[in-house]
Amino acid sequence: MPKREKSARNKTLDISVEEGAPFFSRCIDAQSVPARPFSAAELHNKTICGDSFQLLPLLPDSYADLAIVDPPYNLSKNYAGSRFSQKSRQDYAAYTQEWLRLLLPHLKPQASLYICCDWQSSIPIASTLIRLEEEKQLVIQNRITWQREKGRGARSNWKNSMEDIWFCTRTKRYTFNLDAVKQRRNVIAPYRQDGKPKDWQESGGSAWRDTCPGNFWDDISIPFWSMPENTAHPTQKPEKLIAKLILASSKQGDVVLDPFLGSGTSSVTAKKLGRIYTGIEQSRQYCIWAEKRLADADADKTIQGYEDGVFWERNSLKRKSAAAKGS
């Protein structure tokens, strides 16, 4: 059956394995090279196509400054022909513990770790993290909850519209750049003192305040068909979401590692923000999409909702643009 043509406005990336061969050639294909330890230089700004459970032991010790992990949730789902089957909570906890124990030795002593999950996966992940914290393998710092707009309704339960991100560090010494992740919010009732703005800024006829970020995020838009970052991956994370994690917990030139890369959001966002990226992904299809997005990032480093060094609350950039045109 011929491939159905998309609307000109549909930006969804879904190139086939055959079309994407030039992009796959940029990856390290773990199946075509002998298994051996990698040097740090070999891994810098690379996508590795292969199984994380086999590849993580081959990474250098204390390699990454930040790990962003978006593992398969505890749901039965197909990922480009590879099926993940739902497990019992006990078995999913064992699965989580296995990849965590493989990952942790390759994080620097002051590294941070973020783990994405839905509410069902969050329960066994939390129990695993508590066990590792008791073993002094990591420190649990926080749990971020973000509002995920998409999701199917349920006839006999509440619609699932939230996801968690567990924030951990290897030790009690770690990087956290508060000023890099402040959110610019519109001030509804701006207060002046002696005729001057108090605790807010005035620009383009609008009033703004830069606020400290909390651990509940309701300003994230899920990628959809008209957004350039959108791909056909079923569980793609938004670049804005990942940008917050990278800016908070790493510095320019730091290494960001994602052992379940998917369509490449962690690597793409790391590249746009001046970090070194390393991603591991077992699907050839997803590796191709990741490399296509990385190539596009050479020319376009924009991140939806992030501008002027701050994160803007939902739709406020439209108000800013309208105000600028009117001034």
Kindly report the name of the CATH homologous superfamily.
Vaccinia Virus protein VP39
Average pLDDT figure: 88
Number of domains: 1
Strand portion: 15-25%
Q: What's the N-to-C terminus distance?
A: 53 Å
Low-confidence region ranges:
none
Total E-strand runs = 18
**Structural class based on helices, strands and sheet pairing:** alpha/beta
CATH class: Alpha Beta
Give a written overview of the molecule.
There is one protein chain. This protein has 327 residues and is an alpha/beta fold. The chain has one domain (18-181, 215-308): Rossmann fold, CATH 3.40.50. Helix content is 26%, strand content 24%. It has nine helices and 18 strands. The strands form four sheets. Strands 1-2-16-15-3-6-8-7-14 form a nine-stranded mixed beta sheet, with helices on both faces. A hairpin with a 2-residue loop joins strand 12 (201-203) and strand 13. The longest helix is centred in the middle third of the chain and has 16 residues, at 119-134. It is globular and about 70 Å long.
